[in-house]
Amino acid sequence: MHVSIVEDDPVIAKAVSTAVREAGHQCTWVADGESAIRDKTLLSSDIVVLDLMLPKASGLDVLRSARQAGVRTPVIVLTARGAVPDKLEGFEAGADDYLVKPFAIDELLARIEAVHRRTAHKPAMELEAGDLHLSLATKRLAMAGRTIELTPTEFSILELLMRFNGQVVTRKMLCEHVWGFDWDGPTNVIEVHINRLRGKLDKGRDESLIRTIRGRGYALASV
Amino acid sequence: MPSRLFNRIPWATLRVRLTIWNTLVVLLVTLAALLAVRFGARAALYREADAVLRGEVNEVAIALKDLYPNTEAVVAELRRKAAGHEERGWFTQLLNDNGETIWKSDSCPDEVAAWPVAREKIENLVQVKGYRFARRRITDPADEPFHVRIGMATAYLDEDINTLARLLLPVAAGLSLLTPLVGYWLALRATKPVAEILRTAEQLKPTRLGDRLEVHGTKDELDRLSLTINRLLDEVAGHVERQQQFVADAAHELRGPLAAMQSSLEVGISQNRTADAYRETLADVLEEARHLSKLSNDLLLLAETGDETSVRPREEIDLTAIVRQTIAMFGGVAEERSVGLVLDPPAANVKLHGDASQLRQVFGNLLDNAIRFTPEGGRVTVSVGGGEAGRQAVVTVADTGCGIAPEHLDRVFDRFYKADASRTHSDTARGGGLGLAICRSIVERHGGSIVVVSTPSRGTMFTVRLPTGA
């Protein structure tokens, strides 16, 4: 997959490029809006990560000009302001997803995957990871052929971890996936459910199936 | 419009405008008084003259009866009367019942002499051009009635009135000259305190918010103006102080994580380390960066919610559903800590207009606190009520925790205030001290209120009231 990042801050651009390449994709950095329009960045990419605050031409200009030219490449917009009107403006201009700065790189990678999958093909109804088999239709988990009872919350958490098998999934992503909104307060509301999942999934294993990645989130151990 | 005209003139200060209005009013009143005097005097003079003429006619009538048939004596009497007031234009006339003049004074004008007699009237007054006369028909003792007329030229009366007017005109002229001067002096006196207030107000600067206007204690409008301005200054000064305190507190809070990052990075870079050690350092820095992120988000939310003018589009939301969702989120945590988390079954779903994500933040903060500060085996009870037509929605979050000491109770909503000292808890989570300040800010922006009651060692209850009107 070829990902382009249009971003004037070289530190963020470098971090995103590195992370995208390490995730096994190609990445091109475009430093300003004018170049993005001139080089038809959207046309030559599979997915574009677009900052809205850009020198010369704003991200919205880039987005509008490409959408008016009929280019449908998925775009994830980065905004410094998380206010509803700013987000709405982005969506109206033709964005597929948005992320408010500062953001976790892991979340950006996950959203790139998700947007790409959504625009490329239908979501799977069955998820597989190692000896885990999750049926989204029947809401059942089978581990090595054995059915394991999960609470709806646990099911939801495991579903997201399996969708991003091996990749880091942040607390924020899990909260939004499970409850529809994020909780960034003093209490980690995800941890207790992760621990219960571990209790159910880790019997007979030397290492936990769900790894805690300090400061980032959780990931399903690659098996 | 005069007032609009004044507004266009730059020199038209309040003082000048007062003077102009004052002068106009005084001149108008003077003019009205002059007119009243002129017409009043005229009416009085005419009334007086009429009474005299009548008296004279009646007198002649009596004399005629006495002297009859000696008409010469009567004529002599009439001549005497006309001559006696010649300088006032008096005249007399004696006629028979056919209107033929028997005798008339030389001063009797032709218009009056030719005026027909009125047989049906005994006595009345007649005005003919510039002349005015009383007449009387005398039927007794003669067989043929006589008519007597005594009159005067009204020009003499009018001359008297004009003399009066000539006397009053200089007075009016003097008033016209004096009024603006006196008016300006009065306006000067009246606006002097305003000018003083203005001078003091012009000295006021954002850096000198301690200055106040002088209050004289007279309790008049100007004193009240000073008091109002002083009260506004108090509020502005308080506001500025709170803002400065907020910025200082915020900077202080930001320094913590920054210092931690700095020392981690300095230690990490000081010598060659293993990859694991670097990873550990980076994880430390990342954690602090996350903390900074959260802090800046909170500050932004506070700044946003603190600004009452930033009105966001508000949709109709289901408050009961929001509370249920928040309870669902904290259910696992409460269970883990053996704290009962229950929702009193609400009567009906409560709908209101608001920002769902902000209200989730409110109930999330309240539940997070309640669960953290409630010991094992305790209980957190949530209720949703009200919301019936026109009534406000009420959400309560009550815990059986350690409670808050009374001295901290009214400060728990302050920004950066940490009541941790009074609330024993084992949790080392850095709350930041903004949670309840954000709650209050959000609730107040929704036009509602949040209050707390607490009994140490018994529990704490937060009550959120939100208006349900559109």
Description:
The complex is a heterodimer of chains A (223) and B (470). Chain A has two domains: 119 residues, 3-Layer(aba) Sandwich (Rossmann fold); 95 residues, Winged helix-like DNA-binding domain superfamily/Winged helix DNA-binding domain (Arc Repressor Mutant, subunit A). Chain A is 39% helix and 21% strand. Chain A is built from eight helices and eleven strands. A five-stranded parallel sheet of chain A has the order 2-1-3-4-5, sandwiched between helices. Chain A has a four-stranded antiparallel sheet with strand order 6-7-8-9, with helices on one face. Chain A has a two-stranded antiparallel ribbon with strand order 10-11. In chain A, α1 crosses α5 and α6 packs across α8. Chain B is an alpha+beta fold. A five-stranded antiparallel sheet of chain B has the order 2-1-5-4-3. In chain B, strands 7-9-10-12-11 form a five-stranded mixed sheet. In chain B, strands 6-8 form a two-stranded antiparallel sheet. In chain B, β4 and β5 form a beta hairpin. The longest helix of chain B is centred in the N-terminal third of the chain and has 54 residues. The radius of gyration of chain B is 50 Å and the shape is rod-shaped. Chain B starts with a helix and ends with a strand. At the A-B interface, α7 and α8 of A face α7, α8 and α9 of B.
